[in-house]
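Memo to structure team: turn this sequence into structure tokens by end of day. - J.P.
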Amino acid sequence: LSASLVVYEHRSRLERSLQKERGEHKKTKEDFLVYKLEAQEALNKEKQDSMNRYGALSSQHKILKNQHEDVKKQLLDLQLQHNSLKLEHRKTLETHSQKYAQLQQEKDSEVANLQDTVFKLREESKLLRKAHQEVHSQLLSAQ
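Reply from structure team:
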């Protein structure tokens, strides 16, 4: 009888210990599930934030890429315009240089002609003075 009482007490302690372990296990399992849920929610939020950031960066990249293409096109247009204006400037400069050379040549020719005319007129003036002097001298000697 006493052995059966010892067995009963031992069994009773084991059952209480088992109940206590089950309770602790249940509590640990619930705590783990809460932790797991919170971790999953945090991971999902972080994933969503990352996706939002990726979307924003992707949009910004697309905008910047388009702007870059526009700027490249503008640069190309400006380079073409610059080359065209450079060529036009070179042609205009050449035309003006030729016109200037032509005008310089005409001026030099005209100056030479005028100098020649002045020289001839001076010579003619000398001859006329000499002839006038001779006529004047003849008139004086005829009196």
